[in-house]
Every structure is written in structure tokens, then in C-alpha cells.
């Protein structure tokens, strides 16, 4: 994986696209590990035959929390250790099934007018390998300024 360069508040403007990330394809190992971590024993996340018979689905699905965790990983990898994920809101619009990939993207839509409070807002989107939207959202990220602000402290 390519090492991320430092990201600074000063260098970003609305319209800036964050580097996207792709995860998958989704496997039973992914869903069973996550279900175990969450203590979420619903058949929906690991039992192909059960979901076909009881839910009419073609295969098991990823939990929403798993998909969100991958999206937050994309964001926090990009902002690095000096950035901060202040707030995130997600809406799931379509399931991620066994064998699907998850492709996440983000674009800056708003920037703080005050460099002393260096935040940006991003619109978030997830799509599967067929281009079908699987989630949407919005987040607020805090980023370091490129130059140290003069606070007047001595």
C-alpha cells in the first residue's frame, strides 16, 4: 500500500476528492469474524441456506457495522495520525452480499472559514462492483493546519 503524505487543512477546498478505497470480495470469513467480534449471531451474516429459505436473499450479507468500519478505515488512513474523525452519519441503501466488493469515495463539500477551527465536511458514498449505491453519508474531519497558528501565547 502506498504511504499517505500528510494532509493539511490549508490544501483542501470544496470539490476535492479523497482517494477512494475498495474492499472485497466479501467472504464468509469476513462476516463470521465480524459477527464474532460483535457477538451478532444472526443467520443473516453467515448462513447461505438459511437466508435463501427465510429471507429470500441470494446469499448472506455484511453487517452494516462492518461496512461502516471499512469506510472509517478509508477516512482515517487518509487523514493520518494528526487528523481526527469528529462526526460521521451513514445511511445504508443496499446490502453487500457474499462475493460483492465495496468501493468507497468521499468529496469535500464544505470547509471551515476559520483556520483556528480547521474542519472539513465530506459527502460519502459506497458502491458495489456493479455501480449500485450501497451507502451514503456525511462526515466532519479535523485536519492540522500547514502552518502553526499564532495564538498569542508566550
Task: Give a structural overview.
The protein has 154 residues and is an alpha+beta fold. The chain has a domain at 13-24 and 63-142: Roll (Thiol Ester Dehydrase, Chain A), CATH 3.10.129. Helices cover 23% and strands 27% of the residues. It is built from three helices and five strands. It has a five-stranded antiparallel β-sheet, with helices on one face. β3 (102-111) and β4 form a beta hairpin. The longest helix has 16 residues, at 64-79.
Strand content: 25-35%
The helix/strand order is EHHHEEEE
Distance between the termini: 42 Å
Helix-strand makeup class? alpha+beta
**Widest sheet, order of strands:** 1-3-4-5-2
Could you name the CATH topology of the domain at 13-24 and 63-142?
A: Thiol Ester Dehydrase, Chain A
Helix content: 10-25%
- How would you name the CATH homologous superfamily of the domain at 13-24 and 63-142? Hotdog Thioesterase
Short description:
The chain is an alpha+beta fold. The protein has three helices and five strands, in the order E-H-H-H-E-E-E-E.
Furnish the topology, listing elements before pairings.
Layout lengths: L20 E3 L4 H11 L9 H8 L8 H16 L4 E9 L9 E10 L7 E9 L5 E10 L12
Antiparallel strand pairs: 1-3, 2-5, 3-4, 4-5
Amino acid at each position: 500500500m502506498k504511504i499517505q503524505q500528510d494532509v493539511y487543512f490549508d490544501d483542501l477546498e470544496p470539490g476535492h476528492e479523497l482517494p477512494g478505497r475498495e474492499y472485497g470480495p466479501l467472504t464468509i470469513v469476513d462476516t463470521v469474524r465480524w459477527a464474532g467480534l460483535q457477538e451478532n449471531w444472526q443467520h443473516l451474516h453467515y448462513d447461505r441456506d438459511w437466508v435463501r429459505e427465510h429471507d429470500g436473499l441470494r446469499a448472506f450479507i455484511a453487517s452494516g457495522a462492518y461496512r461502516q468500519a471499512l469506510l472509517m478505515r478509508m477516512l482515517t488512513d487518509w487523514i493520518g495520525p494528526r487528523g481526527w474523525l469528529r462526526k460521521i452519519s451513514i445511511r445504508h441503501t443496499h446490502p453487500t452480499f457474499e462475493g460483492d466488493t465495496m468501493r468507497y469515495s468521499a468529496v469535500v463539500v464544505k470547509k471551515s472559514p476559520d483556520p483556528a477551527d480547521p474542519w472539513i465536511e465530506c459527502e460519502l458514498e459506497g458502491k458495489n462492483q456493479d455501480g449500485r449505491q450501497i451507502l451514503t453519508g456525511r462526515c466532519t474531519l479535523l485536519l492540522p493546519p500547514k502552518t502553526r497558528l499564532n495564538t498569542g501565547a508566550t
